[in-house]
Amino acid sequence: MAPIPNGIMINSLSGTALGNNSGLRSWPADAPCSSTLLEEAQTAYSLKRREKPLVGLQARRPPVTPAKRLPMYVLETRGLRKAYGSEGEVCVNALRGVNLQVRKGELLAIMGPSGSGKSTLLHILGGVETPTSGQVLLEGVDLATLSDDQRTIIRRERMGFIFQSFNLLPAFTAEENVALPLELGGMPSVEARRRAADTLRLVGMSHRRNHVPTTMSGGEQQRVAIARALVMRPALLLADEPTGNLDSNNGRQVTALLRRLVTEDEQTIVMVTHDANVAAQADRLVRLRDGLEETAETPSHAPTRERERVGAGRTCLFKGTG
Ligand SMILES: Nc1ncnc2c1ncn2[C@@H]1O[C@H](COP(=O)(O)OP(=O)(O)OP(=O)(O)O)[C@@H](O)[C@H]1O
Ligand SMILES: [Mg+2]
Q1: Fewest CB within a 10 Å sphere: which of 37, 261, 271, 309?
Q2: Structural domain tally of the chain?
Q3: Rounded Cα distance, 320 and 322, in Å
Q4: pTM (2 decimals)?
């Protein structure tokens, strides 16, 4: 693995080093070296080493410390609100009280017109942004009750992220890209590369493991990005327009892969999409409009084409209301 260059952007969601792109923040300067993080990463790694050998899709089940009582939902939001703008300024109520419940092994699609709050919701679920009010519970844990370091670990170890633009490191091979989150968590390179190879096999990309992203098709790059999101065995995958940059054939393959991960491995996925054909593969569809769930439906009833409308009527003079 090539050394990580100074100043590289790290995906604060998954702990993955990335090129310049939207939705990214710099990794906190002290994060990879902090003793707490290092200790926790080493503990997590030593737990993982005691697992049985990897076999098939089930190989990716995480070595979770058994909870006293399993939470009913992998993900839950309660009254989630987000207002942009400071006091006295015109503000935008991007989210106005969103309540979601996502069960283990469920593929939830979120659709809605441009400006309806889909990306804002995903950023808050991923801990990149904080809500103005309301709660996000991941596996029963309220993210707001965690310290910054704890949230960073949760994001890296329990959440995986898939972006429209893949966000692979161009100078790294597929296998190096996938191994990176593990190595950032303190896993020795040989073990990280072995797990990366296993995960690439899972997404049907073994034959391209030594290729760099520019030599792969968009669909292949997205499958590598999915492998990178899966390699930490996250409880939750968050996908923002995962087929948005793909042609229909590659889009179908990526959608089928996500569906298979849910059906065969009980992976939980929340996916934003504009494509009704992609949403049709989901177990449930939630439509956002003006920062609120408009409807929840089963995808078989989804229209063939999502209506587009720019969100309007939500600007206000900031009063802490929404
Ligand atoms: N950083 C910000 N500051 C101010 N307003 C913002 C900010 N981010 C988003 N908004 C506003 O919040 C609303 C919701 O934006 P968001 O990006 O979540 O929409 P979206 O549903 O993802 O749209 P699209 O389908 O176009 O990606 C929009 O009115 C947007 O202008
Ligand atoms: Mg968006």
Answers
A1: 309
A2: 1
A3: 7
A4: 0.76
Q: How far is the CA of 36 from the centre of ligand 1 (A)?
A: 35
pLDDT digits (tens, 9 = 90+) for 239-280: 999 999 999 999 999 999 999 999 999 999 999 999 999 999
- pLDDT at 65 (0 to 100): 52
pLDDT at residue number 90: 74
Residue 159 lies in a domain: yes
Confidence grade of residue 135 (pLDDT, cut at 50, 70, 90): very high
Residue 236's H or E segment, with its range, is strand 236-240
In a domain, 220, yes or no: yes
Closest CA to 44 of 237, 186, 249: 186
Which ligand 1 atom is the nearest neighbour of the CA of 123? 18
165 within domain boundaries:
yes
Q: What are phi and psi of 272, to 5 degrees?
A: -90, 135
Residue nearest to atom 20 of ligand 1 (CA): 115
For 122, the domain range is: 9-17+105-128+147-312
Say which ligand is closest to the CA of 120. Answer: 1
Tokens of 183: 């190595």
For ligand 1, atom 26, which residue shows the shortest CA distance? 114
Task: Using DSSP, state whether 215 is helix, strand or coil.
Answer: helix
Measure 2 CA to ligand 1 centroid, in angstroms.
36
Q: Is residue 81 part of a domain?
A: no
Give the CATH number for residue 198.
3.40.50.300
